[in-house]
Design a protein that fits this description.
Three copies of one chain form a homotrimer. Chain A has 357 residues and is mainly beta. Chain A is 4% helix and 54% strand. Chain A has helices spanning 13-16, 139-144, 156-159, and strands at residues 2-4, 21-38, 46-51, 58-68, 71-82, 87-88, 116-123, 126-134, 169-177, 185-192, 209-218, 221-230, 237-248, 251-262, 265-278, 281-292, 299-310, 315-327, 345-356. The two termini of chain A are 19 Å apart.
């Protein structure tokens, strides 16, 4: 039992000259007590000790090597975990339903680098990245939702989306990222493979897909547009969105417009919210809605209110309260409550601690 | 391939000022050749190369951050592993049978933080700990059995216990620990959730539970009492014990009294043993017994004798011999032997090496 | 998120005195775009983003402790991973088919130390090693194939071998290695256990086995001979080979002769190849063949040509092209293509990047 010494800022002079290549160990352990209740005859409430209420729990290793001439080579291995019970999270190997773990694997899913596992080359021309990575279009929902698409407050266009296997990440991807020095313009493009045999079957391109994201950030403004398509014989999945951020003093206003399509079903939604900094803490609020064209026209809107108090840069306490109202054939709830029927409402809260390293 | 430098004691002066937060990588790799044989017609013996004969093999990360004002935030992620074949050990996600991995997962169970995965806040008021952790009552068996509830010598009240899923650890737990400065008094309380929907079903509280442990350590004496209950519709599980340690020169005398209940079945047992230090080694001996009220009144008693030689603080060689005698409908054996019938006896040994880091 | 500082060579003076025991974190992330096509009516080609085209992707921890008197204690925990999708690789717990993960575990296999998980003692008498380790006989194929038994170019006696579960590694093994100072002679012996009950069943020794390897390296020459047997009621598996390396200036000539047996089927093969160093890169070429006595006398020969360019010691770009021709009832292909029938041919290539740390 020995200590791996870890430190925040500059290093000893005697080290500096040698540190041409480094490996960073990083992680987040986020635990939260959650409660959810719903309305309707036969409804149930639920208490849980859950993970990832504020930030997604993870354990990772990443490294960057300077190859000279502006070129560098990096890798990134990041595993999600459910620290409420110690399990790891499964990944999807081929961007199709067959690439996911079968359902009843309780307790057995070990550490997989499901969140990201990439190797990359970068230079002043940008970055080329290979492996499992976030899809371009998900960034607009992760970064422009005041609740970061996590916990009781997560926005409906993320929680209720009809975008399937590649909504958040894709395996077998090749990505390209614009360099940082383009006067505020940023962007990325990604293509990924379902790895089926090309044999003329109508499923031969299942799980193949591509996405693109372009944005502009300058001063108080940040705006980004993304579009993507994943191919399936049963009908392609398309995920498109537009996101806007505007900083006014201590307030950050956030908004996302979403338009999805999964085969013949379309989905539409939005998030409108704000983060307001107060000393070492911040207030978070959001209103979001998502509706689809599926049978019964399911729709739900959610109002979320939260507060985060930073004990340090690494440690934060947080709480969130959210209320959701279903319409049509929608039966969504918060924090694992079960509603008594269609069109009911649900309320829940999180109370947690997040420790990063 | 680079070295993460690791070191035992103080650190360079140039580091000390910066090291306000640290991450510790730790582990144990313990491999042992085991043999077991049993009596009776049709019995079999078995040779294995096994793990965790002396200390439980593991790999972990933990960290502590000083938040100022006596407050600190910590995390602990500890995975068990079977280093005889490289597999990780599964966890249980909900303190019920449904939260365990299905049986035939040979070779697939990856690294899960099944041993402990917690995030905590501590101060001069004690520690608040959230996640998967040891139950309070198991400590009396882990710490007061001369063989630490591991290997051929592990005491019967641990090996034969009727305490089910939460015998050793619980997921979704909230724990509180008394601070260290209470004049020898120590203690902890824990509550954990089965996370079922509260829907009026008679199983809605399955996997919920709580435990408490209080002890007193001063000079040669250490005594601790623990009690716990986990709720199930099929009948609650109760686990209670009382443990005593007395140090006399190089000899440590150890004893545990155990009283369990699983629905309508009760279990009773004890451990009486000693550890005797000789130079860099120690002799270990224990006599233990466990009996239940199940059909046929199964009971077994075991005598265990062992020796550990410490090549260094990190590396130890060890051997243990144990003999077990069944009574009534008991058919227990040592190290995977199979007995020819009820009431037979079994003998086995371990010969291993333990390396920690 | 903090940095674990990592460095290559000497350490600060203030450290040197303390570093008596160390833990090394190491790994390889290798991603490659692969393509394969095959001939025959109904054949298919396939594109994939794969892992381990040049070196096997892995993540590991190992440590060595100096115990004084020439004795040291070590451990080695090494996990394979598929960084194209973030999954870990499963292990085999008992050297039998029952010790492997059931097939459809897509996305769930977490990090297991399937590549190696050992604890060992070593001195001037050699090394004693316990746990899951490479079998002695596989080293001749890993080290004397110019393509290291990986990627599109991997030699047929490795890819097509009939050697089953213990072809590459064995769990529950006890190994002995000769010390390094024997004037160029090297060698190892290994025995491993299937851990079945010894109950007189004809499967009681399934998965038990042993292997031995002896070699001689001096100046430009390296030659090694290996033999092994794993016992199964269905018929033992025997794997024997002879390997030769000869260095002539920038060229390394390599050859392996292989003779296997699995129950009543015998297999024969060879590899003949070369590696030619050119500046920071190297050309690799190999011709290999493997044939068995199974129904229809399947046989295939492969020609592989590749180039590796080292951007640094850690980072390499590589490409390989290979062509395979089947004979008899053989239907092998390269990179996941499907052949239209028996006796067809296949072609494929890899284009990838390897980053080690």
């Amino acid at each position: 039992m020995k200590k791996v010494l870890i430190f925040a800022a500059a290093v000893c002079a005697c080290w500096a000259a040698r540190a041409q290549s480094s490996v960073t160990l990083f992680g987040i352990v986020d635990a939260t007590l959650t409660y959810g209740t719903a309305s309707g005859a036969g409804s149930s409430h639920r208490w849980q000790l859950a993970s990832s209420g504020y930030n997604a729990s993870r354990l990772g290793l990443r490294g960057q090597e300077d190859l000279g001439g502006g070129l560098s080579a990096g890798f990134w291995l990041e595993a999600g975990m459910a620290n409420d019970n110690g399990a790891g999270l499964a990944t999807n190997t081929n961007n199709q339903a067959s690439g996911a773990a079968p359902a009843p694997l309780a307790g057995a899913a070990g550490l997989t680098f499901n969140r990201r596992s990439t190797v990359s080359l970068s230079g002043n021309w940008g970055e080329l990245r290979l492996g499992r990575d976030y899809t371009p279009q998900i960034w607009n929902l992760l970064l422009f939702d005041p609740f970061g698409a996590l916990g009781a407050g997560a926005a409906q266009p993320y929680v209720a989306a009809i975008n399937g296997v590649t909504q958040v990440r894709a395996s077998n991807s090749v990505g390209y990222f614009l360099p940082a020095n383009l006067g505020g313009i940023y962007g990325q493009a990604q293509a990924y493979l379902g790895e089926n045999p090309r044999d003329g079957a109508n499923t031969e391109r299942d799980g193949d897909g591509a996405g693109v994201r372009v944005g502009y950030a300058a001063g108080p403004l940040d705006v980004a547009l993304a579009a993507s398509r994943t191919r399936y014989a049963a009908g392609d999945v398309r995920q498109n969105n537009l996101a806007l951020k505007w900083q006014i003093g201590p307030a950050r206003l956030l908004g996302v417009l979403v338009r999805d399509r999964n085969a013949t079903v379309s989905g539409n939604g939005f998030v409108a919210g704000a983060i307001y900094a107060i000393g070492a803490g911040e207030l978070r609020a959001a209103f979001s809605r998502y509706a689809t064209s599926a049978a019964g026209s399911p729709a739900a809107r959610k109002f979320s209110l939260g507060y985060v108090y930073n004990l340090s840069k690494q440690t934060a306490l947080y709480t969130t309260v959210a209320h959701l109202k279903n319409r049509g054939s929608s039966k969504m709830t918060i924090n694992g409550a079960v509603a008594g029927g269609l069109g009911e409402s649900s309320t829940g809260f999180d109370l947690g601690i997040r420790r990063s390293f």
